[in-house]
Amino acid sequence: MAEQFPEIKKKLGFGCMRFPMQGQQVDEEIVKQMVDAFLAAGFNYFDTARPYHSTASEQVLRRCLTSRYPRESYVLANKLSPTFYEKEEEILPLFYDQLRVCGVDYFDFYLFHANSAVRHEKFTQTHAYDIVKQLKAEGKIRHIATSFHDRAEVLEQILTEHPEIEAVQLQFNYADYEDPKVQSRRCYEVCRRLGKPILVMEPVKGGSLAALPPEADALLAGKSPAEYAIRYAAGFEGVFMVLSGMSDLHQMQENLSFMADFQPLSSQEQQVVGKLRTLYQSRNKIPCTACRYCTDGCPAGIDIPTVFRSANDLHSDQGGSPQQIAPEAAKCIGCGQCAAVCPQHLNIPELMTHLAENP
Ligand code: SF4
Ligand code: SF4
Questions:
Q1: Any idea of the CA torsion for 340, 20, 211, 146, to the nearest 10 degrees?
Q2: What are the tens digits of pLDDT across the range 288-316?
Q3: Which of 3, 36, 202, 337 makes the best surface tag, with the fewest CB within 10 Å?
């Protein structure tokens, strides 16, 4: 744990963007059981944001966590999502609404959400950095942080301009470590050089590193693929938190079992990760993490991550059918709203055009 944040008890956080579902609704009975299991095992970090679950995540947290446990028993992170405000004067009402909906009177961590060159411009023009600093001075925020999806140079610029940012949340996993678009390693190095503790998001890459092809089984030595992925990320110097968007109780209990007394990967396990990386990269051609940031605004109603998952499955002989993929992809009208919000910088309209013709 980072010594700056002694309130955090363990290195695994509950990412609240992939709750268990029953049909279209979050299954709150299961979420309550997961919250109970998580806290009982000595973990206490929860991460949410206004857009998660089409704005339902904060409400679910109030009903399943904050109304059921004393405030000091959990650490709650929330975010300023620039897609939820237009003008400067809308920031404070949004923030206070987030407190109200979450049922708390302060956030332990408040992050600039998915910061990037474009979003930094908006945060700057709307004086969001100043407003968040003021909220911290008033005790409504304990720590200021940023999540980040862009090039390492942009991260360095933001952190240099804003020394008040205490920690950085990076997409960091063994598949993206050297990815030229995600730039996990380079962003990590910026954080280390500037002395910023790191929170990891997407350690299992939207679940795709937990669903490896059958050839992986022989390499795993009885451990789960998620264990390799999470312990890989958690073992880096300076990483004080790894978030996992756990979607059922079994998944949570498995993660808790190996993160209760965290041990970094051995050199032998690191070699296994190298082989898993090669296997993964040969099979997953479209690196969608299923974050679903793109889906609400799609005028054609395309379930974009499902189309990409099916295409990856088809490509790797794990199911998926051209008859499902091509007609869905062909609905795309090329408006580009999805690409503008995709943290993986996928050229979604181009991919849809391609999949409509060659699923
Ligand atoms: S470009 Fe296509 S997939 Fe993306 S939002 Fe527009 S219609 Fe939907
Ligand atoms: S296409 Fe991009 S925005 Fe949409 S779910 Fe995948 S990673 Fe997220």
A1: 40
A2: 988 888 998 999 999 999 999 899 888 87
A3: 3
